[in-house]
Amino acid sequence: MSALKLAKALGWLSIGLGLSELMAPGALARFLGMRKGIGLLRAYGLREIAAGIGILTRDNPTPWVRARVAGDLLDLASLGPALKQSRRQENVRGALAFVLGATAMDAYCARRLGELHA
């Protein structure tokens, strides 16, 4: 798959994730066993949507894919404490695995795009 096609797929993924975080933060918080953080989840949703739109609408999506990597690091930083505090540690571990996988794809795509647009 080309770097641009992967970027487009990541853009759509961002929009989907962002909409779920924005529209159902309470359900996501309950799934993760979090008592706090609804406002933060909504903010993360807006961040995801912005990155997705940036990726899908720009000729050079590299900065927006890099923004996804930065966002992934924020997600990981938020999930770390949740792993210690949550009663639903299996769900948090699953979320951590998903974010780690997304981070790897985002970083790979950002590197490939950087080479393409250098």
What's the short story on this structure?
With 118 residues, the chain is mainly α. It is built from five helices and no strands.
Explain this structure to me?
- The longest helix has 28 residues, at 89-116.
- The chain has five helices and no strands.
- With 118 residues, the chain is mainly alpha-helical.
- Helices cover 86% and strands 0% of the residues.
- It is elongated and about 45 Å long.
- The chain has helices spanning 3-23, 25-32, 38-57, 62-85, 89-116.
- The mean pLDDT is 93.
- The whole-angstrom Rg is 15 Å
Global morphology = elongated
User: Beta fraction of the residues?
Assistant: under 5%
The secondary structure category is: mainly alpha
Query: What average pLDDT do the residues reach?
Result: 93
Largest sheet: none
Helix content: over 70%
Number of helices: 5
Q: Regarding quaternary structure, how should these chains be classified?
A: single chain
Strand tally is: 0
**H/E series, N to C?**
HHHHH
N-C termini distance: 19 Å
Low-confidence stretches: none
